[in-house]
Amino acid sequence: MGFRCGIVGLPNVGKSTLFNALTETAAAQAANYPFCTIEPNVGRVAVPDPRLDRIREIAKSAQEIETQLEFVDIAGLVRGASKGEGLGNQFLGNIREVDAIVHVLRCFEGGDVTHVENKVDPIADAETVETELMLADLESLEKRVPNLAKKAAQGDKEAKIQASVLGQALELLRDSKPARLTEPKDAEEKLALERAQLLTSKPVLYVCNVDEGDAATGNAHSARVFEKAAAEGAKAVIISAAIEAEIATMPNEDRADFLSDLGLEETGLARIIRAGYDLLDLITYFTAGPKEARAWTVARGSKAPQAAGVIHTDFERGFIRAETIAFDDFVTCGGEAGAKEAGKMRAEGKEYVVQDGDILLFRFNV
């Protein structure tokens, strides 16, 4: 499953450099001028998880397959995008298709990279993008909500649900606040809000792109971004796109020493993945056998049949049970046979809520 993150920001903040580094490809052209990324580039990266290495070792699997994270590098936005300026319409259309927004903000000085606003101010940059997204949502809801209210008054139950939650979102937008601050009163309203595909209802991860020297501790610019994120209930991470680009070209065995020399314990990719998982409330479960050990991603709270469906729809449709071992028990007991002998393998039914780190074997019949 994984999840799909759209990398956005003003032109020349380091979006494409970051994309190239994260996906270890040159699929997105990184250049010092606006709109060098015109079509959204899509790249998938493996999600590192040391638990998978341990599971493969214990299960003596022939290979391991990590779950994947998808990045979409979306063309830079400028003022007036909500009215179609620059590549506005395309930008807004691409952003509707992602699960979360990775908002790259320039937090480094330096005159060799042109800033579209001719100044370095990450908060102003963030507000420029947010304003365009809010204006697009506002225009959409000002057309939709009155029609929904009319249908609701005529007794349309579905319209009543939509009018309630989208009306709340509209009031927030009129107050210059994003739709993600909307508080649905029940599952039906939550679903209605999700289906509306509002641009400002998507969770946001701010990525502070700093110089190499600030990668470990950040700087005054990134500190302001972290304050903004905390106030919004959003997430923020510090990275140096330049460092990530360099790491991407290194052999795996050289990366740890390189990071250590810079005062870093892990790559920016690892920080982005962890923040993204937290943002979208995702968990990982595993399957293991002689052929492969594999990681799978599901939303927290997913029940066993839903988790089975990530592997194949037939698994969900014909679900019988999930033979379940917790990761710690799998390790302690030396694998499936030991866990079964110790009474640590459980047979779970359709109502079982999958836990992070579960090793699952699905039984199904179609």
Question: Can you offer a commentary on this structure?
Answer:
The protein is 42% helix and 19% strand. The chain has helices at residues 15-23, 50-59, 88-95, 122-153, 157-174, 187-195, 220-232, 241-248, 252-261, 268-280, 304-311, 313-317, 327-332, 336-341; strands at residues 4-8, 41-46, 63-65, 68-73, 100-106, 204-209, 235-239, 282-288, 292-299, 319-325, 346-348, 359-364. The strands form three sheets. It has a six-stranded mixed sheet with strand order 2-4-1-5-6-7, sandwiched between helices. A three-stranded mixed sheet has the order 3-9-8, with helices on both faces.
Q: Gap between N and C termini, in Å?
A: 22 Å
The succession of helices and strands, N to C, reads EHEHEEHEHHHEHEHHHEEHHEHHEE
Number of helices: 14
The count of DSSP E runs of length 2 or more, i.e. the number of strands, is 12
Q: Residue ranges: pLDDT <50 for 5 or more in a row?
A: 25-38
What gyration radius follows from the Cα positions, in whole Å?
23 Å
Give the strand line-up of the largest sheet.
2-4-1-5-6-7
